[in-house]
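One thing: can you check what follows?
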Amino acid sequence: MDGKIIIFSAPSGSGKTTILKTLIQSDELQLAFSISATSRQQRENEEEGKDYYFFSPERFKQGIANEDFLEWEEVYENQFYGTLKSEIDRLHTLKKNVVFDVDVLGGLNLKRFFGKKALAVFIMPPSMEVLEERLRGRGTETEETLEKRLKKAAYELSFSKKFDYILINDELKESIPTAHQLIFNFLNQHKY
């Protein structure tokens, strides 16, 4: 891969995907999106091969056994997320800077793998109350899944200090320009 690596991780509902969709459109940053594989159910507005590669849990487990993944995590029971080695090969041909939208442990694994070539950004909600409001606002969560996501978010927040930068996403109109500047600065650092 010729470009640099930008890793975005956050608890579900922090606004990570919204921020990334805006940043990807910036010609100045020259970003290519790494599409993760998942075994969770496809949401109504998601496209196979654009938002995720959707696998059955069995197919995902077979990919793990075949060592098809650079990194993977079982985020919830039988809900796997991971980065396919074949996706890294696809991105290599694009000659752009690569953006990963991954769960927290996956983000830390990618940072370890890519080292100084990567910038790891943790998107943090302003509070757990705001996070809960955002998740409820999606209208896609049952009370049971909402409770699981909030418990997981509290766990994920404990890893925030292991990232290169913590971006508190209170207002998108402030978070997006901050994230853009952060990435721009990282991409334009002098190589030593």
Q: What stands out?
A: The beta strands are 5-9, 31-34, 36-38, 52-54, 69-76, 79-84, 97-102, 118-124, 165-168. The chain has a mean pLDDT of 90.
